[in-house]
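Sample entry copied in:
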Amino acid sequence: MSSSPDGWCQTTLLHGGNAAFLEALYERYLADPAAVDPSWRRHFDQLREGAAAPEITNGPIRDQLQRFASAGPVQPNGCLDPIAAQKQAAVLSMINAYRYRGHQVADLDPLRLHEPPTIPDLDLAYHQLGPEDLDQVFHTGSLAAPARLSLREILRLLRETYCGTVGAEYMHITDTQEKRWIQRRLEAYRARPELDAEGRRWLLRLLTAAEGLETYLHRRYVGQKRFSLEGGEALIPLLDELIQRASRQGTQEVVIGMAHRGRLNVLVNILGKPPAAIFDEFEERVQLDGRRMLGDVKYHLGFATDIETPSGLVHIALGFNPSHLEIIDPVIQGSVRARQQRRHDQTGDQVLPVLIHGDAAFAGQGVVMETLQLSQTRGYGTGGTVHIIVNNQIGFTTSHPRDIRSTPYCTDVAKMVQAPVFHVNGDDPEAVIFVTRLALDFRNQFHKDVLIDLVCYRRHGHNEADEPAVTQPLMYQRIRRHPTPRTLYAQRLIAQGLIAPEAVQAMAAEYQHALEQGVVVARPVLCALDQRFRVDWRFCCNQPWDHRVATGVPIATLHRLTEAMLCLPEGFSLHPRVERLWEERRRMGLDEQPVDWGYAEMVAYASLLDAGIPVRLSGQDVGRGTFFHRHAKVYDQVTGKEYVPLQHLGPHQGAFIAINSILSEEAVLAYEYGFASAEPNALTLWEAQFGDFVNNAQVVIDQFISSAYAKWGLYCGLVLLLPHGLEGQGAEHSSARLERFLQLCANDNMQVCIPSTPAQIFHLLRRQMLRPHRTPLIVLTPKSLLRHRLAVSPLAELAQGEYRLIIPEIDPLDPQEIQRIILCSGKVYYDLLEARRARGQTDVALLRIEQLYPFPKRALAAALAPYAHVQELIWCQEEPQNQGAWNQIKHRFHHLIQQGKRLYYVGRPVSAAPAVGHRALHLEQQARLVDEALNGRYDPKLNARIALL
């Protein structure tokens, strides 16, 4: 066979017998175009011409060869006519161009604010085709169409599919199966749904409801904020179709996260919240428990309901959402994962996450990217999410489109996880229904994220008191003249003879009358019929934080659990360092040596698992532990296989998962908050690599962890493990910002604890699950103390007792000889203890406050009782004076001052940074503050001898 395409009678590109040769030749061309004959290079260049992605592989070439191996216009000797072959290749290239770039000229903007760009790839001339070719018949390749069509028919199909009111972006996906699936669905239906007359009338009814609610609220509550959906009313039929179709495909729960815009409309018209309840919120007729609950604005509130569908009951939950917009995304994902786990729904078929975004927020907020990165990971995947962007095309009222992102579309960030994006004109509700079906079916078929970009507009300003025309005069001139989606669709149905004009008016009047009555206007809403999968927090309602519970575990059980959690598969090869640790833990479990932190933590988990309580631990490097102390996961040094001993304790144990998370704090912590808020019966923990890094997730702490109960009445038992302690590692590896947590503490909303012994962390973790009380638990955990010779516990302390709020003096000192009491928390205690023992000092008592909030007043009074004669007390901390606990707890000691005692501060001076950057200076500071505390020699530069007035 010739290696040149010259003389197509000898070698034709589309001749089936040459397929293997041509495939190999094309592979060589892709690697190096100069490596093939110039005539072949010219032909391959032509074949690729017009494609938006020049890296087209030989997959399409192979498919074309197979498709046309025995077809096409051939000469008597069996060879294709060279001109016909060239034109055929051009047609295939053009089809590919429409798949890649058709969305750029699609009719997506209801307002038609901008002229569509000129895309040369979509021109016939670009592919060396012309009007004279329109009636010529060509092979359609992989087009979902008859095998042979005229070029005119091919163009009509392509333009209807890719350049109508749907714009599809999917050619960036590398998985051929996914791409082909989308191609078939788009091209076979030409991006239009199959709707009968009744379906179209129902669609109009939903648009009437969406518009009708906004009209009613606008008239009744003039100027009040509601973040209207007007302009994007197609969201309501979109969600209705999504829920109904999901139910037919087996979904039993839908969990929705969305920000403000359109939220009231979704609550009333989809979830079935009674309009009367919305009116009460506008008129502020809402009763709250002012002691702990403060409430929130109406467009932040969540709701849950059960919707009746022809396929059965569907539970719908709308998450409570603060003004930090996209922060709800990972919270919803965590809640969905908990619900799926409760149902043993491994693939996400039963619980569907739906996230509704704003265009500017989706493009602008980094938590969106972090959440997308979680979507396909083992520990955080939920089987795919349907994302809906309510794209107002404006972002903020004062924004110019070129100022709100650097990408062509607001959805472009989602391409990094190869999610398909379906842009759709919000003024074409039938096209909206088509992409809704397509998106949901893709999600359920491939269990991946998918995006619907609902391109619409915003009829009013950012809120209803805003005047958008001040900064967007041209856009709002056009909006004022533009008919509503309902009006446009009603005109369309009237023109088709499917509904009479008077019926359209009657439909609107009927809805307004229902609103006036305050009755439910959504599909039938039912009471909960099946409680098995509900989130039930009733057991901890009104339970006091100081409810005492025994958390000890019998010695025999500790022996058994130790053996179980150290058991490995036969032949498993541990790393030598881990093997030594394994042997030490075995001795600890046999009470042959004191217990360290790592053992106490792991056996605490084992004891909960043994009682059937699930444990979920996540964060960066939590499997091993940043400080090489945990080893919940071990790895065979020969095979590299991972083994998790806590998953093999016994047949009836709770589920255990330790997840090494992506390098994210904000999204992962929000995810774990969502999981814990939906699963009261599992111990859910998130660990920061260093406690300092939790400040990357400050919004989660502020908007959810500390305030969710006060705003929304939501319980959550999430545990945060934050390594903390000044040890000369610099400003970013020292402080978990204890002061920030304490500043947020009020109304018993959180627990802030600094356990200083292994027994304490053992009892603290068990207390979190065993007592009927759930609030977030903030634990400042150690670093150097993980292996400190004094920071150990006897096994007996795990077998008895409970978490001690105050640990009194442990050395046998005579209380009557004590002249000074030092109160402290955390690592500084051991520095003080070692220094006091080294000096042989017996006149200073050391008391550890192990829970800083809720502050243990009674326990402190009992610990101080033996020292009633002591007049001088010191609060000693290693953090700077303006940080750490001091400024947030000093008012807790007022009663001591009233008894005539004096309280002084000893610690580092005020500082803008948490710690110094040089170890030598750190050691000098640490030695000085220890000396000053023990000897009562206060440096006046430290604002010593502070009087509490």
User: Anything to note?
Assistant: Residues 1-20, 50-57, 65-74, 943-949 have pLDDT under 50 and may be disordered. The first strand starts at residue 137 and ends at 139. The radius of gyration is 34 Å. The chain has four domains: 16-177, 197-526, 555-799, 806-942.
